[in-house]
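Entry:
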Amino acid sequence: MEEMLEFGGGAVFAPGDVKALTQLLRELLNEPKRRKQLGYDARNAVVEHFSWERMVEKFLRLSAKQA
């Protein structure tokens, strides 16, 4: 999801580009520190930007603008 990737913790490849996906997976298999960092960044992005509390807060802000 693009909105999650903007905060880190992911990797992108073109849809249907099996060669790029394969290369990315190969790199991740060979780089445990990078895998760990991606996981850490992804979790932080979810906690900081997409937790239940954050989503409710954003919803309430949007609702107030609509009123």
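The chain has a mean pLDDT of 90.
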